[in-house]
Every structure is written in C-alpha cells, then in structure tokens.
Amino acid sequence: MVINRLTSPFRNTVRLRYILKVFLRHGFRDFIGKLNLEGYLPLAKTMEFLNVFGDEEKKLTAPERFRMVFEELGPTFIKFGQLLSTRPDYIPSEYIQEFKKLQDNVPPFSKEEVEKIIKKEYGPDASVEQIFKTFDFKPVAAASVAQVHIGTLISGEEVAVKIQRPDIEEVIHQDIRILYRLAGLIERNFEESRLLDPVGIVDEFEKTILKELDFITEGSSIEKFRANFKDFPGIYIPNVFWDYTTRRILVVERVNGLELDEVKKIKEKGHDPKKIADIGLNCFCKQIMEDGFFHADPHPGNSMLMDDGRIALIDFGITGSLDNEMMENIANVFIGYSEHDYEKLVKTFSKMGITNENTDIPVFKQDLKDLSEPFYGRSLKHISVKEIFDKITQTCLKHNIKLPKDLLLLFKTFLQIEALGRDLDPDSSVLEKAKPYALRLLDRGHNPRVAIKNFKKDMADLYSLMKVIPENVKNVLVQLSKGNLRFEFMHLGFEKINIDIVRGINRITMGIVISASIIGSALVISSGTEVLPVTITGFGKVSLTTLIGLLGFTISTLLSIWLVISIIRSDKQ
Length: 573
What we know:
Layout: H1 13-25, H2 29-34, H3 43-52, H4 55-58, H5 62-73, H6 75-84, H7 93-99, H8 111-122, H9 128-131, E1 132-135, E2 141-142, E3 146-153, E4 158-164, H10 168-189, H11 198-212, H12 215-228, E5 235-236, E6 249-253, E7 258-259, H13 263-268, H14 273-291, E8 293-295, E9 303-305, E10 311-313, E11 319-321, H15 324-338, H16 342-351, H17 361-372, H18 385-398, H19 405-424, H20 430-444, H21 448-481, H22 494-526, E12 534-536, E13 540-542, H23 544-572
Parallel strand pairs: 5-10
Antiparallel strand pairs: 1-3, 2-3, 3-4, 4-6, 7-9, 8-11, 9-10, 12-13
C-alpha cells in the first residue's frame, strides 16, 4: 500500500516535537498555530519555551531567526536552507541573504565511529591498519553529510578519505518526511504560499540531498570530469580508488595546493593570478557549452592551485547536467542578450518552458528591453552576472514565471565563478570569456557532421520505435477482441463537450435540410411547368407545382424561425 507522504500522520512525533520546540523558542508561535500543530506541544513546555524567547531575540528579524532555527535543527535543515538561498524566484531577498550565511560546519564524529563505519563497509574483519599505512583520525573538514580524513594506502598513494556520518541517511529520510508534511500544511493554510509550491521545493531538495548521499555517484562524476579534461591544459582531476570506494566511503587521490582565493600566497609562490583566472574561466565555459556537465559548487575550497600551476577540482558532490537542447538555449539567451535581440530571447524562453500561455508576451518583451538598457554600450567585462541575474529574477517574479531548477543551479554556479575570477583578476569577465564558446556551440548545430550525427540518432530512435509498434498494436487488438479494452475521457467537462458536438451537428444537418428545401421550392416555382391547375378561393387558378413550391417555402421559413429561436435559447443557458 502506498502512503501519501503529504497526508499520512507524522511517523516520528518525538522529532516533530523537537522541531516545533525550536521554532517556538525562536518566536514562531503564530506560525505553529496557523499550521494547527500546537497539539503536539504540551502546555507546560509551550510556556517554558515562550519564556526562553527573550528581549534580545525579539530584536532580530524573522529571516535571522529562521536561519538560527535551521542551524539548530542540524544537517537536513542546514542543507535545506542552503538550497533555499539559491531560489530567488521563490524566496524574498532578505531571507536569501540570511540563508547564505548557513555554515555547513559541524563537530566531527569520533575515531570509534570511523572504525565502525570502515568495518560496516569493508567487512567485519576489516581494520584501518589493514587498508591504510597511515590514517589521521582528526578530520581536515567536517560537514553535515560527511567528514574528510587524510591517509596513505598500503600501496603508498596519498589519499583523501570521505566518510559519511553515521546514521545520517536515516536522519535525512526522517526529516524529509516531516518537511513534506509541513510543506503540505503550509500550502493548505497559507494561500499565498501556493504560488511558491512548497511541496515542489521539498521534492527538489530530496532529489539533491539523496544524490549527495551516494558516494558511488560522486565517484562516477569525478571519472566523467577526468575524461572530459584529459587533454585540457591547466586543469587536473584527481583519481578515484574504486577498490576502496563504497556508497558511504569515497577514496580519492590527495591534492596539495592553495585555495584559489588565497591571492597573496599565490603571488608569493610566483604564479600569475590573471593566468589562473583565465584557466578557471575557460574550464567553466567548457563545462557549460561543450560538455554539458558542470561542477555546481565551485567555491574557493573546491578548487586548488597545485605547485605546477594547474588547477585541481575537488569535491564533486553537487554537479549539474545540460542536454544539447538546453546548452543551445543557454547560448541563444547569452547571444540574444549581448546583441539586444529580444525576439530571440523571447523565443528561446518559450522553448525552455519559461514563458507559458498566461505570459503577456509583448509586456514581457518590453520588460526584457527595459532591464537591458543599463547595460547598453557597456563592454561585457563591465557587466556583472549578478546584475543580470537580479534583474531577470525581478522580471520573472513580476510575470509569475518560475525558472527551471537546472537554470538556477547554473546561475548560482556562474555567480560563484564570477566572484572567484574577480578575486584573482578584477578585470576578468566570465561573460566575455563565454561569448566565443556560445558562438561555437551555435555554429556546431550547423556543422554537416553534427547534423548527420543527429540525423543518425533520430533515425535510430525512430527505428527503435518502429520495432515496438507492431507488438503494441497486436496487444491492443488482442485486448480489444477479448473485450478488455475500454476508452474513457478522464478530463472533466468532456461529457458537455460531447453533448455540444452532437447538438451542433444536428443544427448543421437541420440547416442543410432547410437550405435544400428553400432551393428545391425555388426551382419548382421557377420551372414554369403547369401541372393540374387547382382553384383556390381568393387566388383563382394555381398550378400544383406552384402550390408545392409555396408550401415548401412556408415550411422552410417556419423551420428556420424555430432553428434561430432554439440557438438563441441554448446560448443564453
């Protein structure tokens, strides 16, 4: 039996009570009341926590207090807040700024827990000493999902070992179930929230966080990047040690170097920050407009400058993918925007599903022009991605348009790359660097080789479809012969449509009959044939043909009047 995660009872009331107490402690009593969840809090506890909410905290804004709630509730809510900070199309800017402050730093778990996880993943007889020549139990980084240790394999390679927190998956699943229920209650009790789609936000979060929990997936992402950048100068992707990698433990080659925001140290080492910025921006543009696969969390700690001048990318827990169509759409948006081609912009937005039947296209197009005016005539190096993103977001909010999550993830990555590039070189521009990539991408669509390749792919898809059609048709016919096949209209209102269609056909038929009668009567009268003259009082002698014609005209006229009256009556209903 499938349980509706939005309406089923709360399965873990202990965790729910704790969550509500934290909200209460930070002054969100009205919020709890509107969700009708006060019954989960005993009165004594309610009064106790109300007293904790003191005068100092009352001075804080609601966004600040929400951030404090998420920090106190732990890993799931910290991650959820971080996701919300990337959704300016959903969340007001003051909340965005606060949620960006959420830190993913938590106390490390113990040596005993590390040993327990290693035994669980590698087998009951496994030990740290059997696998590693050296292993530092003090982590170099501890986050909400995992912590990282440095070690050396028995074979001699230096490695970074990412170990998932004990029971974190169970905690996250439990919190996600509660988030779904809370989102459903918010939709039901806060009418203004329905446009924001709280349940959809939780669904997006669930997919993101569960993907991050699977280190096999992260290892595969690293391998994909290694393949994409094997011939790209200046970029290094560390090796994955698959013999030691499991769903909860990831072992990769250790990379030594400086974080890319340590500009002073980079200069002291004799490296040119401008050259490093150029390598980094080219790397990002290649990911977006050639590979369609990008590192979606490129903050300074995830990019290291090695001693030989290469940039090593690390931590591939969050990645994004773009298909060919999306890559071309992004290139068209970029070119359309840089060349002030608003017709191209609107058409591309429509292809991407950003605009819909409710969008006032002329007004939307004018708004795009208005938001672009401040950038007119300026070099791309003097235009900030953040400026563009803020204005596009404002325009989308005005038109009740929701940006696709892949596009928002891409924008977030653009912002991080731009900030990182300008730390190294204030004159660098990700937009300027991206333009030639965008032009090459669009030209590639007209390349005969690419066209032939796409044609072959389409033909292969068509061939696959043609192979299954006969079998599917056979199955339908078999079910039809057995009387097991039934067609139903599932859309409400089709019954009325059916009646209206029948009524319309009847009217058309009646109209044709009346028209034929009028034409026939006219032909009979105009024929001039005198057949069996009869005497009619007051009219004298009239031929039978004329009489039939007049009778036809009379009946046709009466039927016409009746048809007109019935149409008028039905239209008023």
